[in-house]
Each structure stands twice: as C-alpha cells, then as structure tokens.
Amino acid sequence: MNTIACEIAIIGGGPGGYVAAIMAAKEGKKVVLIEKKFLGGTCTNVGCIPTKAMLASANIQHEVENGKRVGLNVENAKIDFSDVMKHVSRTVQTSRKGIELLLKKDNLTTIFGEARFFDEHTIVIKDTSSLEDIYTINAENIIIATGSVPVKFPPFDKPEILTSDDIWDLDKLPASLGIIGGGVIGCEFSTFFSLAGVKVHIFEMMPTLIPTEDEDVAKELLDGLKRSGNITISTGIKVKDVNFRDSVFTVRCETKDGKDEQYNFDAMLLSIGRRPVLPEGVEKTGIKITEKGFVDVDEKMRTSKPCIYAIGDITGKLMLAHTASKQGEIAVSDIIGKGVSPANESRLYEHKQGSEHMNKRKIDFKREYFYKSIPSVIFTIPEIASVGLKEKDCINFHINYLIGVCPIISNGKARATGQTKGFVKVLVEPENHTIIGASIVGTHATDMIMEASLAVFHSLTVEDIFDTVHPHPTLTEAFVEAALASIGKAIHI
C-alpha cells in the first residue's frame, strides 16, 4: 500500500471539494483529492447540470406552445425523451471531463476510491472494485466534502420508487407520475415531465409549494405550473402509504380535512429532502456531529478539531453547489493563513452589525446573514430566485422593512417578448434604504437575481441601484423599479 504525505487532503470531488482543491493548489499547497465515484458530485452527475440539460427541451417546448403571442406558429413540436436523455448524458460527460482537465492543469493528485478515517490526520483509501486498501494519506489538514443523498424511509423506501439520483435510469416516459414533495426538486421535475406530456400529480404536506419561499412567490409558481395543463397539485396533504403491484403505484393520502384519498400512477418520484453522507471512521476523529447528522462547523468551516474542516451539504447550511464552493474557498483561505476570505466577512458583516432593528432578536449575523446572502434559484416555469431576507424572515425576527414590487408586465422588454408573468420584489431597511432581500419570479429570474445578490452582499442602497444606469430595454430595469417602489419613487409603475 502506497503512502502519500500532503498539506491538504480533500474527501469528495463535488463543487465544494474540487474547487477547494484547485484553490489550494494555486496557492502552492500539496493537495490530494479523493473521489469515490465521479468528479463533480451530485451537481454534475445527477443534480444541477443534468436537470438543466433536461429542462432545456421543456423550456423550448413551452416557448413553441406559446409562440402564437409573438406570431410564431409551429405544429407537432414534441419532446423526444430518448434524445433528451442523450443530450443529458453528453452534457454530464463533458462537464465531468472539464473538471478532470482543470485538476490536471493545476497538478493535483486525484485518487479514485473510498476514503475512511484512521485518525484525525490519516485517511486510508480503498479501491471500490477490488475492495483492497491502496493508499494511506497523511495530511496536515483535511477537508470533508462528502455531500448528501436523497432521504428515503418507510413506507417510501421501496426500490421501485425513484429519487433524483436514479430517475435518470428511466428509458421511457411514464403516462403518469406521482411526486411526493413540492420543494425545488419536485417542482423542477414536474416542469419537465408535464411539458413532455406526462400527467403529473404533486403531493406536498405543507400549505404551499416551495415552503422556503414567501407565499406570494409560491402562489405565482402554483399558477404557472397549473397553466401547463398536465399538473395536479395537492398541498396540505399527508401521504400515508405507497403500494406497488402489477406495475402500478397506489398512493393513499389524508387531506387537511381528514379525508382519505387514493391515486394510481405509472411511476413515483420521492423528493422530500436529503441527508448528509459522512466518511467511514469519522467517529475516530472526534469531530462534533449534530443531532441531525451534520458536521458542526464555525464561520471558517472549522470543525471541533483544528486540523479538520467540513464544507457543502454535510454542514447542513444551504444544500447548494455554489454554497459548497464558497465554503471551500473559506476553508482554504483559513488553512493557508490568509484568514477569512474577503468575500466572507469584511464588507458584509460590518454593515449589518450596526443596524439596531436587525439585532432585536440576537441574530448571529456573522454566521446566519452570510448564508442569507447566498442566492437560491429554481428552474421552473416561471423561474424563481431569491436572496437575502424574505418577508417571512422579517416578520419572524421583528425586523422593520419597506417593500417594493414591480410586476413584470410593466417592463418593456417583457411585453415585447410576450413573457409578462411574474414580479420583482425588493425589501429595504427603512432608515438608510439598504437592500436586505429580493425575490424574483418570471422568465430569466435565475439570471436577474445576480444584481440583487450584489446589492444584498455589499449593502447597497436603493439610491445606489438608481444611480447605476441600466440598459433599455432589459428585464433588469424591473429591479430598479421595484427598488424605487420601496421608497415610493417608482417611475414606470
């Protein structure tokens, strides 16, 4: 068995792990990256990238179906599932190879195999084919970036019930699809399958879809999904059991009124959350694990052991690829002795600590507001994006705020393209007009959110946004109008 000594060992080659590895290598550190299966993690292989590749066809299909509003008449446009899945496969392969090239360019040592802890400085790597130990890694510092997997528990643990990990194994479209869970994953898959002609039924236990977003955002999504004509949505409903017999799934539910209902489907997708995956032997390190199984970290991604860091989904913060990458940057910055990365602390927290009404509830903004400043994007039709505080946050934490809303229909570019559904909502501090949050619903919301992210992260004011000239005609003008509306100075609404 070979032995390698390094300054930083990273377990997991997803968007947190490989980004951290590249950053550390560029700083001259000797780095070993360990990946069990495929580089890119969930995001590249079964998450962000393949779902967007799949949804590309759905978005075009949607535009074709609604093309008459701008003078386009196309007949018999249809999604070919087999060709869609070929496109998905090509996209995943290309993305994965791209990561491999990046790692080679930076002269990293990448080892494929399963890592287990021997102690807080030592990792043993097992070959996943031969099951033999092939390497011992002695590392000064270790970053754990092992990600998460879909939650599956009785009575939903039947092998025939799909998750976001194995739905890619479908070789043909089902006639009907039941989806348990109306969060981001469930809603994105429902968007594709409904536009592909599948009869979709979403079951969500909470009163609204995407319960992490504000109610007005959730309602706009609900209306948008219903417009597809192929989606039935049941909220406030509890799925009690799922049976599979003779190639048919039977779902038994209890409504909020206490009534029993039953539905049949050709396929089932479970999307009720994800759980962390920890490396074997992690208990030997003595790091603190929370009651929910996540690794406890501070704002610099340090665990209870000074030489071990954790990033990504296993920290239980925000299960997003870009969160993992940013956490990787923070961890590496701390290891190489530069302290916290400039993006993590300096400009962000100093602005927030002085706000009196922001501190009414003893919120530790040094940790919590940082994660609030990370944008969330949902690729449904309409698209949804948000960053910073939401109205529900302000209400829960007794934070005073002003609100400005710009309906997308008031935007010239939106009217010209016929894509007028949705709105931009901006939340502002009353005292100094600092932008503290934004939500966007509509076409290209996932791109438009970046301006709001800059505003929230750098504590920009409404006046800062207005003083910045925005090109016309563009959808970005809606953000300006929403910001101005919050202080009663909107021009075009």
CATH topology of the largest domain: FAD/NAD(P)-binding domain
Question: What is the annotated CATH architecture of the largest domain?
Answer: 3-Layer(bba) Sandwich
Structural class: alpha/beta
How much strand? 15-25%
Structure at a glance:
The chain has 493 residues and is α/β, with parallel strands linked by helices. It is built from 14 helices and 21 strands. The protein has 3 domains: 2-61 and 77-148 and 275-335, 3-Layer(bba) Sandwich (FAD/NAD(P)-binding domain); 167-272, FAD/NAD(P)-binding domain (3-Layer(bba) Sandwich); 357-486, FAD/NAD-linked reductase, C-terminal dimerisation domain (Enolase-like, domain 1, 2-Layer Sandwich), CATH 3.30.390.
Report on the architecture of this protein.
This protein has 493 residues and is of the alpha/beta class. Helices cover 31% and strands 24% of the residues. The strands form 5 sheets. Strands 1, 2, 3, 4, 5, 6 and 16 form a 7-stranded mixed β-sheet that branches. Strand 12 and strand 13 form a beta hairpin. The longest helix is centred in the N-terminal third of the chain and has 25 residues, at 81-105. It is globular.
